[in-house]
Design goal:
Keywords: GTP-binding, Nucleotide-binding, RNA-binding. InterPro entries: G_ERA_dom, GTP-bd, GTPase_Era-like, KH_dom-like_a/b, KH_dom_type_2, KH_sf_prok-type, P-loop_NTPase, Small_GTP-bd. One of its GO terms (molecular function) is GTP binding. Belongs to the TRAFAC class TrmE-Era-EngA-EngB-Septin-like GTPase superfamily. Era GTPase family. It comes from Canna indica. The protein is of the alpha/beta class. The chain has four domains: 32 residues, no CATH class; 42 residues, no CATH class; 182 residues, Rossmann fold (3-Layer(aba) Sandwich); 95 residues, K homology (KH) domain (GMP Synthetase, Chain A, domain 3). It is built from 18 helices and eleven strands. Strands 2, 3, 4, 5, 6, 7 and 8 form a seven-stranded mixed β-sheet that branches. Strands 1-11-10-9 form a four-stranded mixed β-sheet. A hairpin with a 5-residue loop joins strand 9 and strand 10. Helix 5 packs antiparallel against helix 6 and helix 5 crosses helix 7. The longest helix has 19 residues. The protein is globular and about 85 Å long. The two termini are 61 Å apart.
């Protein structure tokens, strides 16, 4: 054992290769011990390159290092029909022969016969109803029968645009946060029902100054881009927070609503949505708000909705489907495109970052998708980087011993798995931007 320790100390010491060879060849036993030690793994021996490595070049979060909770197994579904009622329905539908085979030898009174007839009628009415949405998704629609509509959702910051988009699409496509200006670019969400496909475009929050004109530098240039794209949609949804309007009215929001509803657009239809009606205690106040904007000719319809609970959204969706035009679909109805999946992954991670990082840091961080691979086992490998302007911002995002970036990564990875219905390997890295040379 002393010889082994000596050989290990000699080989791990910073000697030149020629010196090591002389020591090993000085004795046959030492030569065999050197060959035996050379076959061992060298992973525990530190090197100068490892010490000089930049700590920021490695991943700050790797989902493979964390054990994510597995979803609970689905409970077996119990039959929704009572066997006695099923037997009575068979007797009402197929006569006394089925009754004699299925029912016990008891005398049925008039009340039980009436109940069985009522149940049989309900079964027949259910069979005549249109197919469910799950069956409609698998229906093949010919191109000449397809109808589509592009809908732009605009409004002031924190009006609930992203929440409404997620609810109508049926899955998360846009980040939702209580912080203002959560949406920083246009987000696409697609809803397909029957032969109709509606494409929703969630836009950054718009604001109008007290002079009645849009801000030229309102949260960078992205809002100007949103203003310029208003006229390209078939239908425009103008949404505002009715609860905030009743408690703390903002003249800038009022100017925005009036400016968009002043004139009737010949090439575009517009509707006004009063969002967050579930927060209004006295519902009579909603009629006062509707009366306040009823003289605006630019809006065809007014809807009182709640994008969070879904109240009134069904009527809005039906109105949108009625406005669809005969046109081939622009998106695949059954599968999610890779570009949309990439956008969703960025939105989910950004939402978790906004939930854990505060003040001005989320707005100065450059969030990028660096790598996207579909592995052989069907799982996804997603690598995203946060590029910060200052080293202090990086320390805040990473947190003590990686606690902050770890929470962001675990929550985002778990939600991405539930959205994509597959295993996701999420890698997050926080880097400091290089200083531009003069």
């Amino acid at each position: 054992m002393k010889a082994l320790r000596t050989i290990s100390r000699v080989l791990s010491s910073p000697l030149s290769p020629s010196s090591t060879t002389k020591i090993c060849n000085s004795h046959p036993l030492l030569s065999s011990l050197c060959r035996s030690f050379a076959t061992r793994a060298q992973s525990q021996i530190p090197t100068d390159s490892d010490n000089d490595a930049d700590p920021s070049s490695t991943a700050d979060f790797d989902s493979s290092a964390f054990s994510l909770p597995e979803p609970p197994p689905a409970a077996p579904q119990r039959p929704i029909w009572d066997e006695a009622y099923r037997a009575k329905a068979d007797a009402a539908l197929f006569g006394k022969r089925a009754a004699a085979r299925s029912l016990p030898d008891t005398v049925e009174d008039d009340e039980e016969r009436e109940r069985a007839t009522r149940l049989a009628r309900a079964l027949l009415e259910a069979a005549l109803e249109p197919p469910d949405e799950a069956e409609e998704e698998n229906m093949e629609v010919k191109e000449e029968d397809q109808r589509s509509l592009s809908v732009g959702i605009i409004g002031a910051p924190n009006a609930g645009k992203s929440c409404l988009t997620n609810f109508m699409v049926g899955t998360k496509v846009a980040a939702v946060s209580r912080k203002t200006n959560t949406t920083i670019h246009e987000v696409l969400g697609v809803m397909t029902k029957g032969n109709t496909q509606i494409c929703f475009f969630d836009t950054p929050g718009l604001m109008i100054g007290h002079n009645g004109y849009p801000y030229r530098t309102d949260v960078r240039v992205r809002v100007e881009s949103a203003w310029n794209s208003i006229d390209i949609y078939d239908l425009l949804i103008v949404i505002f927070d009715v609860h905030r309007h009743l408690t703390m009215p903002d003249n800038r929001v009022i100017n925005l609503i009036k400016r968009l509803g002043q004139q009737v657009q010949s090439t575009q239809k517009r509707v006004l949505c009063m969002n967050k009606v579930d927060l209004v205690e006295d519902k009579k106040d909603l009629l006062k708000v509707a009366k306040e904007f009823e003289d605006l000719p630019g809006y065809e319809r007014y809807f009182m909705i709640s994008g969070l609970s879904g109240s009134g959204v069904k009527d809005l969706v039906q109105h949108l489907m009625d406005q669809a035009v005969k046109r081939p679909w622009g998106e695949e109805p059954t599968t999610m495109s890779e570009e949309m999946m990439k956008s969703i992954s960025l939105e989910v991670v950004r939402e978790k970052m906004l939930n854990h990082i505060h003040q001005e840091i989320p707005y100065v961080v450059d969030h990028r998708l660096m790598d996207w691979k579909e592995l052989r086992d069907g799982s996804l490998r997603v690598e995203q980087h946060f590029i910060t302007p200052k080293p202090s911002h990086r320390q805040i995002i990473v947190g003590k011993n990686g606690s902050k970036i770890g929470r962001i990564g675990i929550e985002a990875n778990e939600e991405l798995r539930s959205i994509f219905k597959r295993e996701v390997h999420l890698i997050l890295q926080v880097r400091v931007a290089r200083k531009k040379s003069a």
